[in-house]
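Hi support team,

I've been running sequence recovery on a batch of backbones for a student project. Most finish fine, but this one hangs at about 90% for roughly twenty minutes before it completes. I'm not sure whether the input is malformed or the queue is just slow. I've pasted the structure tokens below so you can try to reproduce it. Let me know if you need the job ID as well.

Thanks,
M.K.
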């Protein structure tokens, strides 16, 4: 990820020395804060205002690594009046919108120094569509080596409309009109009468949605390696991040006594409708969908039949064990790498070896589902929630769609040979005990965020605080105490992988080991050095490498930045440099009052064989979905539960795995702050 792993990117390392010479971290943070602050209004920073007025992007091409090619293209579009107007909705899945946002991204990526990047950002912020601008800034801060330590403000405070219900936004406007400080309660979109969302509506969490957006920004489907480097195992990561959302949602449903999600099928009605209760800042309300609608062809996007054809071509590839490239040659997928190719094919990203033939199942499905309310454009509706990563999980169809794709991935994974005893064994190492310190217990806690950037204002009128609070899932802190015996006679590097899966479904029917393991939720992964003899490793829930901390509020970020700038103090925001990863508060599935039983698997494997980079045991910033540089773990995502389990007794025979049962409790506790 942005922290340590960035150093591994060849392009990144070369530019880093330039970075330290040209602007302090606090200055960079200040610039990004103000570029994103009140993004639908005019710039507020005096220096930025000056840039917007007087900067000529094409005046000195020596500041660009492409000799100004990208900026020339964008300036030409601007002068020709071809760019999307301001105060209009933006969707990444709209080809022209995306093209424009990426033109700006391209300009920023080619700026050789920070100042040129800020000048361009300020200049185009006043001239381009706000949604395109925000997207380009987020993508550039994530991928540009010069922005390595910059923390992006919480997206739900930059574009609150995409995360907050219409009713709440309307109250915020009213509070702004009255100039009265206000705290508004947010409710979830699901109602008690809607069985589908009863109990699980909390899963449309602002942090979970932010994670989803950030993942797609770090591993964008539009990525070209010419921007800087190849995104390691991008396709496999696509499968894994969505697999984890899918299995987590099922665990939440079981917690709430609901059936696991059923997959979506093109030739069957979409059973669940929904009302998103969300509106664009500009462009009206997001469309809703009634129950039991049949899939219809969407004009200009795809026919339902096309989707079925693409589906069967992909399933054919899985059955054959190879993907056919554009030139007719074959790529063998019957190995660890196969899932990576298949992920690129299914999404599809520009890495797909044959998008012409295999299409773009995932991206097209998002648009198809998003448009079912107005498939022929008769009512001129804006895009649906499925056409934005921020809002997609509001549609229960999202999880059905991803269950459908997850099942395709499983079809492939299950076609590979099972792991053998020798594959799994870590000779001389055994896990002798695993104990949990503390209780596995979840609760809800109100979380506040600001709606200031949702409402319109002017520089002349002072801001009043307008906040909303929303219940979010959290859990009590706990630790794992893992007792490991090392009889190798020497120190050994070990990878510790922790997974949990629901022991039984909502009817109390036990999952087979093979079905259970496919539903495994990854709780942590880290490296340790084992000294000879027995040692106990204590790992805290707060250290989980698959989760991230909640970024401080936009206001706190700004205050800290300004304090560091004026006092010359250090701006230490290191912990928040990545927002990709589930929020740590979301680590555990909700569970229930009686204690929901989970299988807990702690797998200790050969760290020296697994590690793709050195010294992982000293690296406490290892971030799981890392995008820059090499992915730290050589094993497939989900290892060792990614492959079909022919005979589960192997997992009991190897001594380096530990299988126990734990219960996760939820007693209806809700911490209010008002
Ligand atoms: Cu996604």
């Amino acid at each position: 990820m942005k922290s340590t792993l960035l150093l591994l990117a060849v392009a990144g390392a070369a530019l880093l020395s330039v970075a330290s010479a040209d602007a302090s971290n606090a200055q960079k943070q200040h610039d990004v804060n103000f570029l994103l602050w009140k993004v639908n209004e005019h710039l507020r920073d005096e220096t930025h205002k000056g840039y917007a007025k007087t900067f000529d992007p094409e005046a000195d091409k020596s500041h660009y690594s492409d000799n100004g090619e990208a900026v020339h293209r964008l300036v030409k579009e601007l002068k020709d009046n071809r760019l999307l107007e301001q105060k209009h909705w933006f969707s990444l899945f709209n080809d022209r919108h995306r093209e424009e946002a990426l033109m700006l991204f391209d300009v920023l990526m080619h700026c050789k120094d920070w100042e040129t990047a800020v000048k361009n950002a300020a200049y185009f912020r006043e001239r381009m569509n706000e949604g395109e601008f925000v997207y380009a800034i987020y993508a550039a801060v994530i991928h540009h080596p010069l922005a390595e330590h910059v923390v992006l403000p919480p997206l739900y405070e930059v574009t609150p409309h995409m995360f907050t219900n219409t009713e709440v936004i309307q109250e915020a406007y009213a509070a702004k009109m009255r100039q009265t400080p206000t705290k508004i309660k947010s409710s979830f979109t699901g109602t008690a009468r809607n069985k589908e969302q009863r109990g699980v509506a909390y899963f449309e969490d602002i942090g979970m949605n932010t994670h989803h957006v950030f993942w797609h920004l770090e591993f964008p489907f539009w990525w070209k390696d010419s921007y800087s480097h190849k995104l390691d195992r991008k396709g496999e990561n696509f499968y894994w991040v969505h697999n984890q959302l899918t299995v987590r949602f099922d665990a939440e449903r079981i917690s709430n006594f609901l059936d696991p999600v059923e997959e979506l099928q093109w030739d069957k009605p979409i059973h669940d409708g929904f009302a998103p209760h969300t509106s664009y800042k500009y462009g009206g309300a997001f469309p809703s969908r009634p129950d039991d609608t049949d899939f219809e062809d969407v004009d200009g996007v795809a026919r339902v039949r096309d989707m079925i054809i693409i589906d069967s071509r992909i399933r054919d590839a899985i059955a054959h064990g190879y993907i056919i490239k554009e030139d007719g040659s074959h790529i063998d997928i019957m190995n660890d790498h196969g899932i990576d190719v298949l992920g690129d094919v299914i999404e599809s990203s520009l890495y797909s070896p044959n998008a012409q033939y295999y299409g773009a199942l995932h991206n097209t499905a998002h648009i198809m589902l998003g448009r079912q309310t107005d498939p022929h454009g008769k009512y001129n509706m804006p895009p649906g929630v499925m056409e934005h990563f921020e809002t997609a999980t509001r549609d229960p169809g999202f999880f059905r769609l991803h269950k459908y794709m997850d099942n395709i991935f499983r079809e492939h994974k299950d076609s590979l040979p099972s792991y053998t005893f020798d594959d799994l064994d870590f000779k001389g190492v055994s896990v002798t005990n695993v104990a949990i310190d503390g209780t596995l217990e979840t609760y809800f806690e109100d979380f506040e965020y600001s709606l200031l950037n949702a409402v319109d204002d002017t520089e002349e009128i002072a801001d009043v605080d307008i906040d909303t609070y929303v219940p979010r899932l959290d859990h009590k802190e706990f630790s794992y105490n893992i007792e490991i015996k090392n009889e190798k006679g020497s120190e050994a590097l070990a990878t510790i992988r922790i997974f949990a899966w629901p022991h039984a479904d909502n009817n109390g029917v036990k999952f087979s080991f093979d079905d259970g393991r496919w539903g495994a939720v990854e709780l942590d992964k880290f490296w340790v050095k084992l000294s000879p003899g027995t040692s106990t490793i204590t790992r805290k829930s707060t250290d989980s490498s698959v989760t991230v901390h909640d970024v401080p509020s936009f206001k706190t970020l700004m205050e800290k930045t300004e304090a560091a700038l004026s006092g010359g103090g250090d701006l230490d925001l290191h912990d928040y440099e990545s927002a990709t990863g589930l929020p740590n508060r979301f680590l555990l599935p909700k569970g229930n009052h009686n204690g929901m039983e989970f299988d807990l698997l702690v797998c200790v494997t050969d760290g020296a064989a697994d590690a793709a980079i050195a010294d992982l045991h000293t690296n406490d910033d290892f971030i799981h979905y890392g995008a820059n540089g090499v992915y730290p773990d050589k094993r497939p995502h989900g290892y060792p539960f990614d492959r079909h389990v022919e005979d589960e007794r192997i997992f009991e025979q190897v001594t380096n795995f530990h299988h126990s049962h734990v219960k996760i409790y939820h007693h209806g506790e809700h911490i209010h702050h008002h």
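--
Follow-up from support: It reproduced on our side and the slowdown came from queue contention, not your input. Residues 1-20 have pLDDT under 50 and may be disordered. No action needed from you.
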